Amino acid sequence: MRKISLNVLAIATVVAATGCGSSGPQGQLVGASNGINYAAPVPLGMVYVPSGVMIIGNSDQDVRAAFDAENRTLQMTGFYMDATEITNAEYRQFTNYVRDSIAHTALGDFKDDDMGNQRIDWKKQIKWKDQDVIDQLEPVLYVAASQNMYGVRITDASKMVYHYDEINYDKAVATPGLAKDQYLNSRNIRIYPDTTVWVRQFAYSYNDPMAAQYYWSPAYDRYPVVGVNYYQSEAFCDWRTKTWRDYRSERKMPLEQTAVFRLPNEEQWEWAARGGRQGSPYPWGGPYVINKKGCYLANFKPNKGSYSADGGLYTVRADAYWPNDYGLYNMAGNVAEWTSSPYANNAYGIVSDINPNIRQDIKESDPQWLKRKVVRGGSWKDVSYYLMNSTRDYEYADTAKAYIGFRSVITFLQPSMNNRPARK
């Protein structure tokens, strides 16, 4: 009996080894897995805005008679959006990265990656107080102490430039076979916020403390960054995408190559601001800007210019007031927000009714009116009309203001197809 059992075991082993057993596809079409159990990630600080159908456009009287927000029914794919406006602390992480990358480059801190490309070795420490390091960095990073009014060595904002290449998808699709450098737009963006907006944009007003402290003081870390133009907010989104991808690649984590952080287009912004409330004038519903206790629901210019009546003379913390039903804070008031959409008063009549979007490649030679970008949400200095979900306004892409900030979005197809976002 023992000999028979051994023979049966040997036969079973041979059968399994020849692929006729339970292992392998067994001659069937079963598909080839990539070996990764995929679950869409949830970026820190973002909330899911679900897929759905919305009616965009005026929810109330068009008091400006602009006729630029006609009603239209659209289908939107879900996406993740920053719960708050990008804060000073978050934007400072970006500027610190640019500063450190310039320093590492000047010091020659490189290493070869698996593809033979040279990359910055971020594990090397920069000895900021070492005199030899200071001497090497002064030409590329600093204003010499002898040449500025403060008498100390300070970072030269004009040297803080972020370089990235942006794919021109329209050109690449229209003309297949183009060489790489023919469909890439190279960008070199000065990334420091313009803190002088607090002085320049308010004539005969003493706002010098805001110019000196708002971006730099830790007291304002959780306040929305302002003084950034459209190009700077785009550069921030590119850096955020790069940082996200580098981290996940190094740890062999699933990577969505086409998922990028970007500014929302204006239809996405309006869909998110409404919080699922069809036809409501404000993110909290409406029709009023105060609740039944008489408390203001946003930071704006109430009454006849009583700026501080709502709790903030200028901006307030990015997570102030109650969020809308999607968990998004300050979609009305505090600071207006850049979108990726070019401003055209007939835009709602020409866009697709599925995931509408208008792309624009702005050139330096373009006339100024072509550089208008849609801003949404109103700000601390605006009356309540500009806080409405449907109100469209614009600013020039190369202009920074003390009342315009931004937030970013990213799309992962898995949750958006079935409206089942990943757990945090």
Note down, in words, how this protein is organized:
The protein is an alpha+beta fold and 424 residues long. It is built from 10 helices and 15 strands. It has 2 domains: 48-87 and 198-418, paralog of FGE (formylglycine-generating enzyme); 89-159, no CATH class. The strands form 6 sheets. It has a 4-stranded mixed beta sheet. A 3-stranded antiparallel beta sheet has the order 1-4-15. β5 and β6 form a beta hairpin. α2 packs across α3 (131-141). Mean pLDDT is 87; it is low at 11-20.
Distance between the termini: 58 Å
Structural class: alpha+beta
Give the count of helical stretches: 10
How many E-type strands? 15
This entry's quaternary arrangement is: single chain
Low-pLDDT segments = 11-20
Strand order of the largest sheet: 13-12-11-14
CATH class of the largest domain: Alpha Beta
Largest sheet: 4 strands, mixed
Structural descriptors:
424 residues; alpha+beta; paralog of FGE (formylglycine-generating enzyme); 2 domains; four-stranded mixed β-sheet; three-stranded antiparallel β-sheet; 15 strands; 24% helix; globular
List the topology elements:
Elements: H1 2-17, E1 46-49, E2 52-56, E3 72-76, E4 79-82, H2 88-107, E5 110-112, E6 118-120, H3 131-141, E7 142-143, E8 154-155, E9 161-167, H4 169-174, E10 184-190, H5 197-200, H6 208-213, H7 230-250, H8 266-274, E11 336-342, H9 347-350, E12 372-376, E13 393-396, E14 404-405, E15 409-410, H10 413-418
Helix pairs in contact: 2-3
Provide a brief overview of the structure.
With 424 residues, this protein is of the alpha+beta class. Helices cover 24% and strands 15% of the residues. It is built from ten helices and 15 strands.
